[in-house]
Amino acid sequence: MKTISISIFILFLISSLTSCNDNITKKISGNDVSEIEVLEEFYQYSIWYAFVNKVFEGDLTVKELKRKGNIGLGSYTMLDGELVMLDGIPYQIKEDGTVYVPSDNAKIVYANAGFFREDHSFNIDDTLGFDELRRRINENLPSKNMFYSFKIHGKFNWMKCGGLHKQEPPFTDGLDVLIPNRPVFTRDNFEGTIVGFYCPEFIGNINVGGFHFHFISDDLKFGGHVMEFEAETLEVSMDEMHEYKFVLPDTDAFRNVGFETEFQYRKK
């Protein structure tokens, strides 16, 4: 009888643990961070230095990225659109400016992501541009030696965003050539959210030093890499992160790349 009782107890314990793990998996998949303390980190896929040196094919899927955060930015494989993730939904802004929600199987070449939890916030109620926004954020950063993610919602009088032209192998041009010739999108009088990250300058060529911002409009019809804007009001929320994790692509392109080119698009 004791043997049967012990066996029943072990089966019950295994069943309970399995059920618990299933619940955690569901919460991660749904980007519900209320009970997932371990994922309070800055996640990065690939490194900026590889991205600059024409590594334009990745093996990270959209489905996997959604398990790493509920906000994010980056670029899709072959540079087929700018990536901006807001509230757990990754968007793809194509080179013609159209906005899509890609399939879970779509591949990503470079990404930053995190589960956003507001640590600090402030409002801006006067008209300002991109340079002034960065200046005010710098004034409000608790420390420039930590990592931060941002959600900045507001009303914009106008904005200019950039994309990238889709590439096909063999890749001949790096970002030092592609970015100055990038497609540009503009729009007037609308609302939306800037999503971005701040890395301390000591990050070097692993990531973009300083601020990196992407954008998606509330009506999901406009977005891209933030270049310039004039905003009427802004609500700035930031999340300070003390943990940093980067994952390297398991691809031949990354294994064989040479790191000859150094290029930082914007460091402010």
What would your notes on this structure say?
The protein is of the alpha+beta class. The chain has one domain: Hypothetical protein, similar to alpha- acetolactate decarboxylase, domain 2 (60s Ribosomal Protein L30, Chain: A, 2-Layer Sandwich), CATH 3.30.1330. The chain is 21% helix and 38% strand. The protein has helices at 2-29, 48-52, 62-65, 130-140, 175-178, 252-256, and strands at 42-45, 60-61, 71-76, 82-86, 89-93, 99-100, 107-114, 120-124, 128-129, 147-162, 184-199, 210-217, 223-241, 244-247. The strands form two sheets. Strands 1, 2, 3, 4, 5, 6, 7 and 14 form an eight-stranded mixed beta sheet that branches. Strands 8, 9, 10, 11, 12 and 13 form a six-stranded antiparallel beta sheet that branches. The model is unreliable at 1-30 and 32-38 (pLDDT under 50).
